[in-house]
Write a structure and sequence with these properties.
Elements: E1 4-9, H1 13-22, E2 28-34, H2 38-48, E3 51-53, H3 56-63, E4 67-70, H4 77-86, E5 90-93, H5 101-114, E6 118-120, H6 128-138, E7 145-153, H7 185-196, E8 200-206, E9 217-223, E10 228-234, E11 247-248, E12 253-254, E13 260-261, E14 266-267, E15 273-277, E16 281-285, E17 290-294, E18 299-302, H8 311-326, H9 334-353, E19 357-358
Parallel strand pairs: 1-2, 1-4, 2-3, 4-5, 5-6, 7-10
Antiparallel strand pairs: 7-15, 8-9, 8-19, 9-10, 11-14, 12-13, 15-16, 16-17, 17-18
Helix pairs in contact: 1-8, 4-5, 5-9, 7-9
Amino acid sequence: MRNLRVGVIGLGEVAELHLRAYKETEGIEVVAGADTRPERVAAVTGLWGIRGYGDYGEMLDKEHPDIACVLTPAASHARIAREAAGRGVHVLCEKPIALTLDDAAAMIETCRAEGVMLFYGSSYRFLPPLMKAREMVGQGRLGTVTLLMESLVGGRGRRHYRELGPDHYPRGGPGGGGMGLVDHGIHLMDIFPWLAGAAVESVVGRGNRSGSAPGPEFLAMTLGNGAMAHLVYDDATFASDRPQEGIFSRGPGWDIQGNLAQGGGWDDHPQSLRVHGDEGALRIFYYANRLFHFTEDRREEVGVPDRPVPSNFAIQMQSFARSIRSGEEPEVTGADGMNALRVLLAAYESRETGRIVSLSRPADTRGA
């Protein structure tokens, strides 16, 4: 069985994590990478021994990859995905899937019409502590899930705040820092319904806009099973955690200011999410690759595979490769990405209208 050939489009920092992960992924071969910045093309392709291109279209035409791994800013996702699909190339697209629901729908429809698969890059679904947490929820070990939460508050104050800017998110639209509602929270808008096994039904929230002064962000979601899911973010202030609240981290991840931290040591401000039920609770340190379970008579650390970031990208690609070879729909579809985007945009609509926003029926994830 031949290797599936991968072309990486967008050679930013996250691309290097993908490339590290793909080195351990059997059955695939990264053949080339493309980026508009010549210095990035030279640095990344030289390091990883792949061919480099300044134009992704030229790469697709010359290399004929089986998979285009789209790691560019979200504003370009729809265009690149549709062009790749038009060449018969399967697409793995990073989050957010797009900036508008129309663009997301066009991506899904083009891939369907061209007979290629679109895999939404919800890489958090492939982090071992989150995979184990979902298994435990499904086994009923928490009883009925009632509350899911994540809070990321810290940084070095407003003077050191760094937003991602218009290259990532157009000025005036949803945007902000690397660990805010748009660029990071979009993961949880997918993960929380996935963990609880219920779609988001209504939203109230407030998010930052690109080019505007930062402020606290929040999102409160009501899920179809009655559970509540809350996000609270502010990366333009200071952490109030105490040092003893840290943890030994098993792997790298992103700090509160969106910088890649190498991990493998003590983390004073470890990122985590919490899942509460009427018979138990979980604390999930997703970058540290650690999971804790609490019940009436037990407090325990639950063992998970020792595959921290960036192995989640390898597990994700293995899943996509299986789908391509078997012809079965991807484990995470374009419609999953569209549903997360719908929740995000509803938070901004909520702030503008001052109302709770009820969501329409989620997109059908089958065959998307």
